Amino acid sequence: MKLHIKKGDIVMVIAGDFKDKGKTGKVLKVYPEENRAIVEGRNLVKKHTKPNAKNTQGGIIEQEAPIHISNLMVMEGKTPTRIGRRISEKTGKLVRYSKKTGEEIK
Fold it and tell me: What share of the chain is helix, strand, coil (3-state, %, to 5)?
């Protein structure tokens, strides 16, 4: 299934936890089979870790947890927009475009 969100997009959290709602961030990773994405600095959770080679101290670390893509909206400039797909007149390939302005996205 094609998703409207890709790695590297700037997105706004439009629903969910009150502390992240309305804030923006960059998509770090997308999980298409689960319809979820990890957004930089959003949906932070605390994880308890045992000491290991990477973290010799162990303890509590904060990391981003996945957010369902239905709760994310792609930003075009400073405004959130819906995303559509169409075939480009120039290249003949399928491209994403902003439904608000009609311009191609990346």
Answer: 5, 45, 50
